[in-house]
Amino acid sequence: MAYPDSSTFCCSSRFHCHGFGRNSQHVSGMIRRRNTTTSSSKHDLPSDVVEKLPRGSSDTAIELVDGNFSWELSNPTLQNINLKVFNGMKVAVCGTVGSGKSTLLSCVLGEVPKISGILKVCGTKAYVTQCPWIQSGKVEDNILFGKQMDREKYEKVLEACSLKKDLEILPFGDQTIIGERGINLSGGQKQRIQIARALYQDADIYLFDDPFSAVDAHTGSHLFKECLLGLLSSKTVVYVTHQVEFLPAADHILVMKDGKITQCGKYTDLLSYGTDFMELVGAHKKALSTLDSLDGENVSNEISTLEQDVNVFGTQGSKEEEASKDRQNGKTNESEQKGQFIQKEERVKGKVSFSVYWKCITTAYGGALVPFILLAQILFQVLQVGSNYWMAWATPVSTNVEPPVEGITLIVVYVSLAIGSSSCILARSMLLVTTGYKTATILFTKMHYCIFRAPMSFFDSTPSGRILNRVSTDQNSLDTNIPRQIASFSFIMIQLLGIIAVMSQAAWQVFVVFIPVIIVSICYQQYYIPSARELSRLVGVFKSPLIQHFSETISGTSTIRSFDQQSRFQETNMTLSDGYSRPKFNIAGAMEWLCFRLDMLSSIIFAFSLIFIISVPPGFIDPGASFQSGLAGLAVTYGLNLNNIQALMIWNLCKMESKIISVERILQYTCIPSEPPLVIDENQPDSSWPSNGEVDIQNLKVRHAPHLPLVLCGLTCKFHGGLKTGIVGRTGSGKSTLIQTLFRIIEPAVGKVMIDNINICSIGLHDLRSRLSIIPQDPTMFEGTVRNNMDPLEEHTDEEIWEALDKSQLGDEVRKKEGKLDSKVSANGENWSMGQRQLVCLGRVLLKKSKVLVLDEATASVDTATDNLIQQTLRQHFADSTVITIAHRITSVLDSDMVLLLSQGLIEEYDTPTKLLENKSSSFAQLVAEYTTRSKFSFEESDDH
Length: 945
Prior knowledge:
Elements: H1 6-19, H2 22-40, E1 51-53, E2 60-69, E3 78-86, E4 90-95, H3 101-109, E5 114-122, E6 125-128, E7 137-138, H4 139-144, H5 151-160, H6 164-169, E8 177-178, H7 187-200, E9 205-209, H8 217-231, E10 236-240, E11 252-257, E12 260-265, H9 267-273, H10 275-288, H11 301-314, H12 317-333, H13 354-362, H14 370-394, H15 407-452, H16 456-461, H17 464-480, H18 482-506, H19 511-555, H20 557-562, H21 566-615, H22 618-621, H23 629-659, H24 661-669, E13 695-702, E14 712-719, E15 724-729, H25 735-742, E16 750-755, E17 758-759, H26 765-769, E18 772-775, E19 784-785, H27 786-790, H28 798-807, H29 811-816, E20 824-825, H30 834-848, E21 852-856, H31 864-877, E22 882-886, H32 890-894, E23 898-903, E24 906-911, H33 913-918, H34 923-944
Parallel strand pairs: 1-5, 4-10, 4-11, 6-9, 9-10, 15-22, 15-23, 18-21, 21-22
Antiparallel strand pairs: 2-3, 2-5, 7-8, 11-12, 13-14, 13-16, 16-17, 19-20, 23-24
Helix pairs in contact: 1-21, 1-23, 9-10, 14-15, 14-18, 14-23, 15-17, 15-18, 17-19, 17-24, 18-23, 19-21, 19-23, 21-23, 28-30
């Protein structure tokens, strides 16, 4: 009887242990390499865009000669730019929306491809973007930005940026962890942290892109005085602004229009030139003239009838004191529970629950196909053993022995059994693929649904890297590995039972050899599994910050390059990559540890089995007749393979438990608490709701998370239907939080909000949000076309869209584009300026025309002339609507019927603008006085000319 030699089994063992699934891994590796090659082959920005001069080698900080720059070579963005900025100069850049102001700063940074011209820059740079870029992490780390801590300088920067009061409010001061994109900070706080980051760098050249639009008048004046005219008095500063009152202090002013510098010079000189600059100053002066019209005779009768209601709020000092006490009590009682806004990623420890396996198996069709898969494998195993048994029984031992059956019968039966086993394999594979696909689809759909229906607090506290990790890496493992791994373990178990069945017929004595194998294999498995399981969990945990950091780096490339911080970010990326690779390497090492021991065990048992078979007397294993020798040989052959099957079974069991971690992590995201229902059938408002638009806020208390302090501390006020209400207050006072509560982005902790006598928490989210309109603080545009962005639900005709674009002052700009309404919009609207994005959002609400309209800093990034036109459009088209306006631009608020002033989550003042201005000691009057004082110099200069 001939047996395969030991090398065959060793090779087989190594193949099973290391080669299982290598084909798919090889293909994945090839695809990754191809993608990496494609990405790395993309050209960087040419190094000759900017000629960098050694620090201190020239008295000229920035020099631009005949510069032509373009984001797209077919359409120059900036043309014939000539500019010379000497060291220590303050240069202001102004102009209408989309005139190229931000692009000019990007050119100085070397971010825009150069068509022609010469650009020289001497010295280090610091850049403050128009849309704040904030890293996840501590406030302190965002300000230091890689620099060593200098406590004295740090404190000066905090004071200059008016950040100390904000840090006192934050739970952990400057050690508070900021969420992704600064999600737990107000727009003004993010902007001031950006400015603080730039100031701390102590650069030679500072580039500010509209730094004062997101802050109130007090803070804006403080920033301009303490930062630009104080700490940066000896530095070169180029700042873009729409606020004319900040222009007179500049040494040089650039007026831009249609990508060209149309005027340049000192403030007084430009006033005498007229044209474009005078239009900007004239629009600003016209806006401020609103102040003069605010007297008692000009107040409408409707407002006067409401003054009695307003006066009630003036006598509610006790309620405000009570709310203040509630706020303080909230802080005290929660001081022990209060934690960071961003929590560590949840990681299960210990053995994977059986429910995870059960959920994975029964998700598709309730597990109905699983028995059929197992049945197909059992039939395959029976037919395979049967075919081998048939060949062993029907094949003569030697030529001297007559075969039991004819040759044709032997072949027909063997082929039939082979076809049957192949059919079982086909059926098994189809059922397995169907089950695996259905399981992956169902779990992904559930996870996808739960993520998209999760409350905003989930996204506030969960970095995108964690979400992307689960929907990519973990889902990929579920798609490609886990069903196969579970099936492989089951199939090997059935194969093992088949071997035992064959051996029991003729060579049961060989079982004695493998009892130690079972014991040792189980010991290996018990020793390996805990480490491999926790390492697999660590891989998922360590990959999330890597993805998040990479995503943040991509979005902040211009800031990173302007600060010359590329090497630090590369080093951080490598550190995070090492952190992710470390458990991956340990997993591979642990797997090698297991495979090596299983291989050694296999080789030892194989050698021992051969010695055992050769040494025992012939009749001990084959006591029967000569025609049974083939069966005995078959049994012994199966027995010799038993050790490999046992090793492979242990390997698959270990691999399965390490892979099932992905299902465990996916199931965590299928249990995310959901937002309230979109529609509540038994409590749907009428189609005409809200008909009046009255908003009644009663004892409203709001916090961003259960473990965080209150942000709104018992607000009680009423926004009367059809009136315009302006909301003002220091950055971080709770203005945007109030708006988020109105849309139920954040649910009230206490109190309620009534709109036309309906509690907004009693109706579905879709019914509420579809009846309201908002222009958000951070304007959003989606990748696609202008038409898709203006009318995402395709409810309006092109004529209506064009009409809305004209009303929002964007019609002419869109008509210039080749595609008109089909013009391309890149991701996040990157090919549109911030002001243009705000105007697109305005166009959306003009198409919708809701009874309640909310403007959250809707015109912060547009010039005063455009703002005046927008305000006129809103007055005309929303005359009978309730308009709630959050604005730092005082002229926008003065146009309101009522003004609400918030301070630290409380109502400080609420009355008509006239009443508030009559009281010179009111906070609102002081805010307006600050604004007018700031503008006084510019108007005096204007009047002189």
